[in-house]
Amino acid sequence: MTDSERLSTPIRRLRLVLVRTNFPENIGMAARASANFGHAPLYLAAPRRWNYEKALLTATSQGQPLLDTLTVTDTLQKAVAPCTLVVGTTARTGGARRQLSTPRQTAREIAERLTAGEEAAIVFGPEDRGLSNEDLENCGRLVTIPTAPDASSLNLAQSVLLMMYECCLALPDAVRMDSHPCQSRRINAGEREILFQALKDSLMAIGTLPSDNPEHFFLPLARFFDRADVRRHEMDIFMGICRQMLHLAGKGKQP
User: Fold this and answer.
1) What percent of the chain stands above pLDDT 90?
2) Alpha carbons within 13 A on the beta-carbon side of 104
3) Burial class (CB in 10 A: 0-12, 13-18, 19+), 221
4) Looking at domain 3-174, which CATH architecture does it have?
5) pTM of the model
6) What residues have CB less than 8 Å from 245, skipping those under 6 apart?
7) pLDDT attached to residue 147
8) Taking each helix axis from N to C terminus, what angle separates 24-36 and 156-170, rounded to the nearest 10 degrees?
9) Amino acid 75: pLDDT
C-alpha cells in the first residue's frame, strides 16, 4: 500500500500499534479484524516473536495485505511519532490509570482527528501483562473496555476488533442500516392510509374486525404498525396478504 492509498480514507490514517506481542497468531487475527473495518495499518513495536507464516494462518486472505505492509519498529515512540492523538488501552484501573474513557467516547475523538486529515494511533499491550506505565507515558488518552468484573481480560485481537468497530461507527461516512441497499424507503402518509384501509377491509371481510365501528377496534393495530416503522417493501407484502384474504372471503378479485 502506498502512502497516498493509506491516506486516501480516514480509517487508513489510524495506526494499530501492537507492543511487545508474544504470539504471531494474535497479530494475524488483529490483521483480519482490521481488514473487516477498513484496513487500518498495523505497527509492531519491539515484537517478542514475529513469524509471518504463523501470523498468516489466522490472518486469512482478508488480513494478508496488512501483514505484507506492516511496519516493525524497535520502540513505541517511533511507531506513534507522526500521530497527533495516541490512545493507550488498559484493563487495569486506578493509580496512574485514571481519567479513562470508553471505546465509544474515545472513538468520537479519534474520528474527528482522522476526518481532519491527521494521524492517530491506538496502542495495545502484550498479551501477558498489557501496557506498562512507561508505555502509557506515550499516550495522551487512556481507554478501557468495560467487562464483567470476574473476566476483565480480553484477547488482543478481540480488543482490536472492538476498537476498530467503534472508530468506523464514529466516522461520518459509516454505513448506517437506514442507508443499506437492502432497506427500502419508509412509507409516506398517503401509503399509510392505503395500507390501513386495505387491512380494515380484509379484516372485516373475514370477521376479525366488527363492521359497525372498525376505526375504534383497528386503532391498537394502527399503533402497532406505526411503531413498526413500515417500509415500502413491507407494505407490499401486507397488501398482498390483504388481497388474498379478500379473495378467500369471496369479496375480492383472484390475486
Assistant:
1) 72
2) 1
3) middle
4) 3-Layer(aba) Sandwich (3.40)
5) 0.70
6) 202, 203, 205, 206, 252
7) 85
8) 20
9) 96
